[in-house]
Amino acid sequence: MRSSLLLVSALWLLIGSSQAADHYQLEKVVELSRHGVRPPTPGNRKEIEAATDRPWTRWVTADGELTGHGYAAVVNKGRWEGEHYRQLGLLTQGCPAGDEIYVRASPKQRTRATAQALVDGAFPGCGVAIHHVDGDTDPLFQSEDLPFADLDPSREYAAMVAKAGDLAALQQQLQPAVQQLKQAVCAPGNHCAQFDRPWQLKQTKKGHTYVQGLSVLASMVETLRLGWSENLPLSQLAWGNITASSQITALLPILTASYDLSNDVPYLAQRRGSILLDAIIKGLEQGVGPAQNASPATRWLLLVAHDTNIARVRTLMNFSWQLPGYSRGNVPPGSSLVFERWRDTQTGERFLHIYFQAQSLDDLRHLAPVDDRHPLLREEWHEKNCRITDVGTLCPYQSTLNTFSQALDKQAIIPVNYPQ
Question: Could you give the CA distance from residue 32 to residue 305 in angstroms, rounded to a whole number?
Answer without folding.
Answer: 7
